[in-house]
Amino acid sequence: MDRLELFPLTTRTQKDFLTIAGHDLPLLAEEYGTPLYLYDRATMDHAAAGYKSALASHYPAPASVTYAGKAFLNLAVAQWTQFHNLFVDCTGEGEIAIAMAGGVPREHILVHGVNKSRADLKSALQNAGTIVVDNLTELKTLVSDSLLSVMLKQDSALQKIQLWLRLLPGVAVETHHAHTQTGQHDSKFGMTPAEILEAAAFCKSYNLPLSGIHFHQGSNFRDASPLQAAIELGLDIARDIDFDGGWHFSPGGGWGVAYHEDELPQPDINEYVRMIAEHVIHGCQTRDLALPHLHLEPGRSLVARAGVAVYRVGAIKRRGDKVWLLTDGGMTDNPRHAMYGAKYSCLPVSGVSREGREKVSIAGPYCESGDVVIEDLLMPNIEEGELIAIPASGAYHLSMSSNYNGSRKPAVLWLEDGQAKIIVRRETIDDLLKRDLGIF
Predict the structure, then answer these.
(1) What is the pLDDT of residues 111-131, one digit of tens each?
(2) CATH number of the domain at 2-33+306-434, please?
(3) Who's near 1: CB < 8 A, 6+ residues apart?
(4) Contact by Cβ (8 Å): 294, 249
(5) In whole angstroms, what is the distance from residue 350 CA to residue 220 CA?
(6) What values do phi and psi take at 400, rounded to 5?
(7) Domains of the chain: which residue ranges?
(8) Is the separation of the CB atoms in 257 and 220 below 8 Å?
(9) Which pLDDT score is estimated for 157?
(10) How far apart are CA 64 and CA 250, in angstroms?
(11) Is the Cβ–Cβ distance between 423 and 414 less than 8 Å?
């Protein structure tokens, strides 16, 4: 069945119900409740190993892989990144704090952000190894009196931090929605080539530790060819800046995964890495540039397939040709369909082999017409009370979740052979009330 190829690598059917890493999904749902998120470590390990192996095969200079904290970050995931010696991309002081608590060393924390606050920058200077500078205002803030003092004290933080400049390449990759594109001319991210050169001159005048160029063109793309022009532009700028000694180059990331059977097969990690490596190598040779330390940011392709959301169906409504399966999860734990029309697939947790008989739409319990996760998907006849499983739920679900309608965020389990560990406990009503202060 094609849909099984969307699920984690350890997914099996046993007695016609789904298992992941040897764990029966009906039993997990009974013990831990629903909505429930499951993460399969073996699938995450496989993706990380695939990137590292491809880099070792295709790129002869130092290279690193960066995990996107914005995809999903907590203490357990931060700890996992260090099993694979990954960098962790953090946006702001909150994600920096999570990475630190999870044992990510300073040199592996890389800080992004399009409008970093002074608090973000201070945390980055104190705790990170790399700051990707998004704009000239940010550079000027960095050299203000209060932040410059942070850089200069305690073992000379200047020797511990690197600055990269974020380039706006003016070329976007093809994604399914404009909200997942970041490299086009009118994007809010990064600096134009002229601004990059101005920023580089500013760094030189203040003797700031400028050492790299970064760009990002979009998220969840499958055709890497638009990266070629951006790589050429980035290398032109690196030549103009004339980095002293070793330098760093990050052509972003955001490689895609299959969310729906129409998108199979899964995008090829090796081919993606090969294309980037060959263009960087050739581009450096033609410009007489030393090969940089190459950084890839695979984004969701490290974690999306590892995650599965398990919901329980409540009411079922038939409105002419429209069939609604109403579940206990929805836009508060997965806002991607509501935000930009993301397309998902689904399987029943039990009775997996049943044939699809009707098209259904799957929606949550919240008071929004946009609280929809899946539209018009062929499914077997589902009964009230059944469990369903939605694959490719590991990225940009829980990290963008909310407490809309007073909903509580779901529990998250980390699955390995023989082990199921709670890595995020289910929120309670007490958790909601702890944040609030009355006026009387």
Answers:
(1) 999 999 999 999 999 999 999
(2) 2.40.37.10
(3) 347, 352
(4) yes
(5) 30
(6) -115, 15
(7) 2-33+306-434, 42-302
(8) yes
(9) 47
(10) 10
(11) yes
Question: What is the secondary structure of 55-80 as a DSSP string?
Answer: HHHH--S-EEEEEETTT---HHHHHH
- CA-nearest of 227, 235, 225 to 196 is 235
Answer yes or no: CATH 3.20.20.10 is held by domain 42-302.
yes
Active site residue 346: no
Contact 55, 63 (CB under 8 A): yes
**According to the model, what pLDDT value does residue 425 have?**
97
Alpha carbons 97 and 91: distance in angstroms, whole number: 10
Length of the chain measured in residues: 440
CA 146, chain centre distance (Å): 32
Catalytic position from the list 90, 203, 284, 367: 367
pLDDT of 145 > 70? The answer is no
pLDDT of residue 84: 97
SS3 25: helix
What CA–CA distance (Å, rounded) separates 216 from 169?
Answer: 8
Pair type for strands 293-296 and 63-68: parallel
Among the residue ranges 111-115, 153-157, 161-165, the one predicted with the least confidence is 153-157
CA 380 to each of CA 15, 67, 261: distance values in angstroms, whole numbers, following the listed order:
17, 37, 16
pTM of the complete model: 0.92
DSSP 196: H
Asked if pLDDT for residue 312 goes beyond 70, the answer is yes
- CA distances to 69, 179, 219, 251 from 298, rounded to whole Å, are 11, 18, 9, 10
Question: Angle 41-58/75-83 helices, nearest 10 degrees?
Answer: 40
Cα angle 222, 283, 47; round to 5: 35
Q: Scanning the structure block, which residue is given the tokens 């490719």?
A: 392
Residue 298 has pLDDT above 70, yes or no: yes
Residue 314: partners with Cβ closer than 8 Å, 6 or more residues away: 326, 327, 328, 365, 384, 385
Taking residue 254's Cβ as centre, other Cβ atoms within 10 Å add up to: 22
